[in-house]
Give the backbone structure.
Amino acid sequence: MKKFYVNYLTDDALDNDGGGYLYIGDTEICLKLSKLSLSVDTSDKIIKIADVKSVVKRDEFLGLRKTLIITDKNDYRMRLVSWNRNDIIAAIEDRKASIENEMKNKTKFNSATTEQLMNIKNLLDSGIISQEEFDAEKQKILN
């Protein structure tokens, strides 16, 4: 899990609404604001990494404020200020790539498993193997 100090901004804020930490875990991005942030709801804000639609860097106020906007597929936005924007983006992209690779590997496994099961089913239907042999092979493939 990676941890970054950030300031949180609401969409209409000119100043920071609160400070806290942005955690980038295996499956989620979680913003935990300090309980001292009185001007904003301090409950955890969470976006699933698989749901991240965009991460945009923006320089505001003549480039003095380094803003990062993370948007999910439902258009929920986390608007943050951090000097570690590039590190945050890299961490999100790394986790997103890992999740996509895991999904591809699961798909490959499922396709291979389905093909193997179909092959032994064809052998059973053709009378080449018995029901007991089919059941034994099926257990091997599924385990």
